[in-house]
Amino acid sequence: MKKNIDFNEIDDYMEEEKGKKLKKNTKKKSFALDEGVNEEGKNRKKKKGRRADFVVKKVEQGSEVIEEDGMKMIKIRGEITLGEFADKLGIGSSELIKKLFLKGQMLTINSVIPFELAEELAVDYDALIEQEEEIELNFGDKFALEIEDKEYELVGRAPVITIMGHVDHGKTSLLDAIRTTSVALGEAGGITQKIGAYQITKGDKKITFVDTPGHEAFTDMRARGAQVTDIAILVVAADDGVMPQTIEALSHAKAAKVPIIVAINKIDKPEANPMRVKQELMEHGVVSVEWGGDTEFVEVSAKAKMNLDSLLDTILITAEILELKANFKKRAKGVVLESRLDPKVGPIADVLIQEGTLKVGEVIVAGESMGKVRAMINDNGKKVDSASVSQPIEIIGFNDVPSAGDTFYVIQNEQHAKRIVEEVTKERKIAEVSRKTISLETLSQHMDNANVKELNLILRADSRGSVEALRDSLLKLSTSEVVVNIIQAASGAITESDVKLAEASNAIIIGFNVRPTTNALKEAELNNIEIRTSNIIYHITEDIEKALTGMLDPEFKESYLGRIEIKKIFKVSKVGNVAGCIVVDGKVKRDSNIRILRDGIVVYEGKLSTLKRFKDDAKEVVAGQECGLGIENFNDIKEGDIVEAFDIVEIKRSLK
Questions:
Q1: How far is Cα 312 from Cα 143, in angstroms, rounded to an integer?
Q2: Which of 326-337 are b and which e, b meaning 16 or more Cβ less than 10 Å from the residue's Cβ?
Q3: Closest to 394 (Cα-Cα) out of 372, 379, 410, 408
Q4: Which of 215, 218, 361, 651 has the most crowded CB, counting CB atoms within 10 A?
Q5: What is the pLDDT of residues 395-417, one digit of tens each?
């Protein structure tokens, strides 16, 4: 006999079983949690490197509402939509939309409202608005990589010195004189093309020098130099005095809040005038100690190697006052000064260690690049197994070329490093998409007003730092009419694939301190692709500036010639009306553009068909002379009309 199925009974049973299972899982979880807290060793080691170790801190978005004494205080972080704002005020969004509509503003629930409008609306609802500044977390804080130091762990470290100043004032020569090596040889155009860092020993103390390029195109690289430094040496030539880039370097040092020592170089020259340098720097707030200020001035000659010991002593005394300390025992952290791709070795990064000790075999991450330290080479070209605070070192082992200026950290394992790189890459792509959207909107606005022309470029340079400097210099040349569009910018030689990309995108290839490969040259010749190479950056910027100037639409200006007064009208069969006139001002030419004025109002604009003196054709008629004239495509001329003659002149355009 078939048994009747009671579905209610089955449901009750299922619920009971589900409850038992849930209880069982909860017990297991709590046991595992207690075990993790109480037990050391294996379990803890196993947990290390799991996703639980990976932390991404985000800056809070949105807004916050605080009520005090019946008054609402709305704190806004970032952007807020009309709908969100209505929620904070505790009203319907339709009420705000209606209010704004009556004021002539058409907004929807998803429209982002500016802070000023939010303030204006809030007044009607007894609320106050406060805008909270958005703080962008730096790399270390975002991924919880910073380790706090304890006072007893900190010990004295070597000072990091940046040499700054105007081009050709002898920065590299001074560093060369200190190190007694020929670093200054073989540099094109007197420009240091890479940031280099070197360490010297004076007595029992070490000093690290960071050399920055002097040319204005490397402003960003020099600014990066100021961020890693403890003391800035401002080199000023005694014969040249203070120059634009001297002031620029000075502003970077001041912005980085680092003490400045002025090295007045080239004092061995007959035309040297150190007093003039002191006076000129005084105008920029840099006053020497002997004149009652707080800046040390040292007169040196890199060429004659004069007073170099005095300069080093001044550096060490200043460093002693600063009490520079660091923790040598923690996981290493530092900054990438320069990076490049070596075809044989792979990515190479010149770094300066700022905290801890870096060892061969450790996993490192810098922005979107990561890797394991395969080898380290010090500033003397020797392989080392470890490097500590304030030491400049060359690292081999990154999977990709890191960006100059990136901070690198030692990470506990490769899985953790990979997750950080993934997160950074994801954030960059999101930022790029939003940036592209904005730029496309801006571009479409320009397209409505004017025809924007683009110059497509592919950049190649010897290092990442140089690529960035060149890119920034060229992008600054863009205007509202002509735009520099950099399709690709990378370090390394110009390759065949660059030429193919140039062909597809109708671009010019620019090479700085690099040359095309044989295949690239053949491909470029075959497809008529232009490759411009130079080892001096301002030659490249000048060339591109000329190209952009040539792309500008011509500008025309009206040039006034003269005026004719019509005295009498003659009707000539088959010709139409001909005017008998007198030139009252200036002159009128046969090929002039003319406009007819009647009672001061322009009634016609065009060209003359005939211009005669008596019965003969005339090329031009000057003030006081009588003439006869006919006008192209216009017959309605009257006595008393004024004919104004003018020329259209093309003005030579420039980007500035």
A1: 39
A2: bbbebbbbbbbb
A3: 379
A4: 218
A5: 999 998 888 778 899 988 888 88
